[in-house]
Amino acid sequence: MESILARALEYTLKYWLKSFSRDQFKWQGRTVLLSNLDLNGDALHASLGLPPALNVTTAKVGKFEIILPSVSNVQLEPIVVQIDRLDLVLEESDDLDASRSSSSASSSTSTAKGSGYGFADKIADGMTVQVRTVNLLLETHGGVRGRGGATWASPMASITIRNLLLYTTNESWEVVDLKEARDFSIDKKFIYVFKKLEWEHLSIDLLPHPDMFSDANFEFSQEGSNRKDEDGAKRVFFGGERFLEGISGEAYITLQRTELNSPLGLEVQLHIPEAVCPALSEPGLRALLRFFTGLYVCLNRGDVNPNDQQHSREAAGRSLVSIIVDHIFLCIKDAEFQLELLMQSLFFSRASVSDGEDAKLLTRVMIGGLFLRDTFSRPPCTLVQPSMLTTAADITDVPDFGEDFCPPIYPLGDQRWQLSGGVPLISLNSLQLLPPPSPPTFASRTVIDCQPLMIHLQEESCLRISSFLADGIVVKPGAVLPDFSINSFLFNLKGLDVTVPLVIGKPCHTARSCNMPFQSSFAGARLHIEDLMFSESPSLKLRVLNLDKDAACFCLWKGQPIDASQKKLSAAASLISLSLETCNDSTGGGSSLMESSGLWRCVEMKDLCLEVAMVTADGSPLTNVPPPGGLVRVGIACQQYLSSTSLEQLFFILDLYAYFGRVSEKIAKVGKNNHLKEARNESASGPLVDKVPGDTAVSLAVKDLLLRFMESSSLGIQEMPLVRFTGEDLFIKVTHRSLGGAMAVSSSLQWDSVEVDCADTRNNLGNENDSYLTPSRNSHLNGNGCPQLRAVFWVQNRRISKSNGDSSLVPFLDIATVHVIPYSAQDIECHSLNVSACVAGVRLGGGMNYTEALLHRFGILGPDGGPGEGLTKGLEHLSGGPLAKLFKPSPLIIDGHRENGSSEDGKDSSLLHLGAPDDVDVSIELKDWLFALEGAQEMEDRWHFHDSEDSSRENRSWHTTFQSMHIKAKSSPKLVMDGKAKPRGKQKYPVELVTVGMEGLQILKPMARKEILHDGIFEEGTLQNGLPEKEKRTFDKYGGVNVGVDIVTCEEDDDVDDAMAKWAVENLKFSVDQPIEAIVTKDELQYLAVLCKSEVDSMGRIAAGVLRILKLEGSIGSAAINQLSNLGTESFDKIFTPEKLSRGSSASSVGLSPSANLTGVSRNSRLESTVASLEEGREWSPGLNKDCAFLSSIFVVDSKLSKLRLYEAYIIRRCSIENDLLY
User: Fold this and answer.
1) d(Cα 840, Cα 1033) in Å, to the nearest integer?
2) Where would I find the H helices in 173-228?
3) What is the DSSP letter of 1049?
4) Is the pTM of this model over 0.85?
5) Of 1020, 709, 1047, 970, residue with least CA distance to 854
6) What's the pLDDT tens digit per position in 43-53?
7) Closest by alpha carbon to 162, among 84, 268, 240, 88?
8) What's the maximum distance between 2 C-alpha atoms anywhere in the chain?
9) Which InterPro entries does the UniProt record give (predicted)?
10) What is the pLDDT of residue 1027?
11) What is the pLDDT of residues 268-287, one digit of tens each?
12) Is 624 helix (H, G, I), strand (E, B) or coil?
């Protein structure tokens, strides 16, 4: 029996030890002592299930002692192996061919298994191994060796384990005799061995790579460990640093073999209750990130074929290694910052399945909770944490490729521990195939699901973290997977709340806060995102781009094979909203724009989607983005865009934008390092034309657009919009295409409908002391208690019938441009510009008087007609903000060339600075336009009779309309003045023929309905043309006057060099399609004259105010400014003066005059004189007293202003009766 046991031990030791001989095997009773032994690296590699890219370069045992049980109990009690020290070195292999040859050489010495499950195997499976100290040195290269210097090399990890114990158990992980443990496999088709691993102490030290000491940068780092780089970061990792210490844990191991004892499955589950890193320095953290990056690359290298390795052939075909850590605490301490990372319920598993030819790897990572805190700032803040919102889902979705990936190894079912928190906060599933298959099979597929998160962007912490990530997480392209492989990536985030604190009173904002036009009541911004999704895969179905209808994207059509030359990306979110955080003492509570958490909603986007598709020109793998000479398509779609912004919010957002600009510059600075600079220089070399795509298209589609400019939020007004801008179906597309020796840049814009509504300013005209930012208490309110808005710009769309019976809507705006730019000066004749624009269905209401009132209310113009105080401070604020840098021209320097096209070394450049296009064709058409001139009478009529519908609003006032107006400009005219054709060649002027035409020009007087009172009941009247109300919409408005004019350039002497072209009228056409009938009364003409005088006055005052805003009053002169301010008075008063008006017309002309001037003369004095003149009018109108008594029952006459409105209503009624009698 002893001899059988000795042969069994010799058989086992030959498998595990190198060059073991019988002479070393000496008995001392029931004890065998061995020392200074070398373990077989391939056997150890296969037993531990290590990654194929790792090689066991060193495996030494100090003192090796074997304690045998009694001979009678050898099958019941285990053999105990005690090792005082085990030294292991695991190194990532760079030369795979050398590793294959070494593995092949060593394979002959190893004893192959699979001959049956004999006595020696049973004895080996039942052994108990005790190791006092395990020293493991792990060296990974991470794909960055020789790149950026040794300072950026991945550090080595020294792992020390003390008091390690490995023993055999039954299927329930209980210690039993070996026979009972083996009985579990009697009626099974497989052989199962269950073992449990325990250790008392584990520590991990990070050590600098030996090559770092030979680096040239190391000589400059001897001043001390506190030396910083130019961006203030400490990157040089001087000595070893303890990462983890005092970790205890246990592992559950299941070995599955066939009946012939061939390895079939290996499952290892490690459980660590707690992992604590109390203090890690800044260089240590950077080294730790580089270590994890190198470990990631080592585990996922695609250039390693597991079946080519000897140790992989001896390993189990199925393996599952999982690690569960209940709590992780990491503290990064430095003199200037301190970060704390708390992670709960970390689960990591890696499953491998190999069929002898190919291998599949499935990696799963789940995190139950994550908290990142900045404890150095005052007060301490949490940077990242789970959202407080509860999610309805309670089960984690597993991707299709993760379902039934590997047959169970542990025979009693899935024993994976469930997360204590239910649904994990972050869940990652990744599938990888080795060796990487050729397209169209995916080499890797990754899905990341994340529950709602909250992120607090603290400036200093963000700069630190960005610097850590830029230095640590750097993977060389092609290090994981080859370029020809195709991959799929999907990221789902249920919700995200990003808080950006910004206090204007901070020292960094003090310089600009003194010029703030308003005292900001906001303390920061919050970005809220729901259902964020990002996906990258060449098999994506892109609905926004609609590639199947793009002829240039034939290789991306449905059904076409996919390969590495294609790339498709998609990002979408169901809701993105930007809200501003109000201070504690801010007002405005109770508004629907204010949320309960003290947030003021500013911007809201629903169903936002971004799609990108690109492909290389020659079918090569797409490694550079964008692909040079390739094809690129970008599409952005938004179902609804809402914006509610006040002037205060606008300036705060500009400050926020400037703040982000400064932080971005700092992040770009800290992210600059040696290897990144080398990559930039390499990508920036060569001409610009060779680096841009050959065919590019970018499109933007917005379904519903709503922009509201609100009253100042500091006034505590609930939803007080000053301006409301609505639009529907906006589509913009810009394309760029290379045409050999030229490029064509084309753009198109289509917009179906637009409407601009402004606040009513009628009550603001009553008192010159009213503030233009404070609403009047007598403002007309809608059903929600908000002021009524007045449409000043809207669109009336028409439909065009098609031959198939369908009809299409004529868009409000349709613009298309094509600009062909040659690359060489020899092809200058190819420089052309083609513009086609059509604007249809425009309706303009109000007038210059109303526009002037709006400018005063918005604070653009002050009481004196000059720039308002808020505008002045706002312009000063903007002049020093980010918009000044945005619109500031910068010198163009590309690839070492100056702006004038010459290179820095004096040689000529290939850059061509072209002048005006040689061939110009511009066509602009305006269809169905209408201008409504509305004065005070029309507005009072609208308010008094509660007419809120604007469908026929233009018919109630003087208005101008035309059916079509076209403007065409071309480079060469068909005819010239002398009848001779011009020679073709380089033209002196880009435009030589301009054609302007207008069809259906009409000027119409008011035709609105009048509501006549009979017996106390309002009834609808008839139009002034006698048609009933129902026929008003079908009244033919076309006809009118047609005008056309052709303007050409004059022939000039070639010797005369005149930069300005001289124009001459070639043809003038004037025609009418139908007879014109003009019927107008004297009173209407006089009212129109007064209305025009008021409009011209407002126009002059606006022009004067604009000149003063631009600070041009000094160059123009004060006399010209005064003349502009009284432009209408100087002209119209000479034609129509109050002294020349008749007795019957004076009342109507005075009573129907527009509101008085907003500046200069007091409005109260004019009001008193108007009321007095109307009081005198009672003498010539006997029925006035009776009518006024009746109207007094309708209108409350409690002021002179109300009395004036009463007389206006009377005059409207009298004029309507006289006109009806006249017709």
Assistant:
1) 18
2) 178-183, 216-219
3) E
4) no
5) 709
6) 888 888 788 88
7) 84
8) 145
9) BLTP3A/B (IPR026728)
10) 35
11) 999 999 999 988 888 888 88
12) coil
